[in-house]
Amino acid sequence: MTIRVLLADDQTLVRAAFAMLVASAPDMEVVAQAGTGREAVELTGSARADVVVMDIRMPDLDGIEATRLLAADEDLAGVKVLMLTTYDTDEHVVEALRAGASGFLVKDTRPAELLDAIRTVAAGDALLSPGPTARLISRVLRAPEIPAPHDAHHASLTALSDRERQVLALVARGLNNTEIADTLGLSPLTAKTHVSRIMGKVAARDRAQLVIVAYESGLVAPLNSA
């Protein structure tokens, strides 16, 4: 299956470079390009994009607000957003994940990594490693300006079994289904089933949302929180 990609960035040269890279992949095609967040929202549906590669800072409507609008549109439920940021310490990344992004990359990432990232989010997985992303989320969620955890998250966690809480904690640490299965002595299929059930119980779009829920609910303590 060919992955239909929409590129959203206000810098024409950056878009052109990304477009050439994506077009070079045999399993992808660029179906639209946008210079603002509003254009990205307007074009995503008409272009039938599978993945939107979204710059976090754009005029008219920034990437975070554009992502929030895409996530709120039931007709675009299958669209995944891969957020791009200039710095991997950009605190807006957590807000982007809350808004519905499935992951993020820094703009100076290697070409092959960008293509792999697009494939990852298109497959429904979150681009979240146990390294930089977890540290970033932990640091930002410790900040005093972060709102209190949503009551819905607390309520939904009470519906989780002990095993599901274990699985959610491992998802928050960046483990994939195979790694979760190995850690808990489960089959990969059982681990995947647990993750799917957890997503349903806490009303999460994908694994990126599960990470946010786990940290905000207090199930997983921020790194170096002591």
Q: What is the tally of helical segments?
A: 11
Q: What share of the residues does DSSP label as strand, in percent?
A: 5-15%
Fill in the CATH topology of the largest domain: Rossmann fold
- Total beta-strand segments: 5
Gyration radius, to the nearest Å? Answer: 17 Å
**The level-1 CATH class of the largest domain:** Alpha Beta
Overall pLDDT confidence: 82
Overview of the molecule:
This is Response regulator transcription factor. The chain is an alpha/beta fold. The chain folds into two domains: 3-127, Response regulator (Rossmann fold); 148-216, Orthogonal Bundle (Arc Repressor Mutant, subunit A). 50% of the residues lie in helices and 12% in strands. It has eleven helices and five strands; from the N terminus they run E-H-E-H-E-H-E-H-E-H-H-H-H-H-H-H. It has helices at 12-23, 37-46, 63-72, 92-99, 111-122, 132-142, 151-157, 162-172, 177-184, 188-201, 207-216, and strands spanning 3-8, 28-34, 51-55, 80-85, 103-106. Strands 2-1-3-4-5 form a five-stranded parallel β-sheet, sandwiched between helices. Helix 3 (63-72) packs parallel to helix 4 (92-99), helix 8 packs across helix 10 and helix 9 (177-184) packs across helix 10 (188-201).
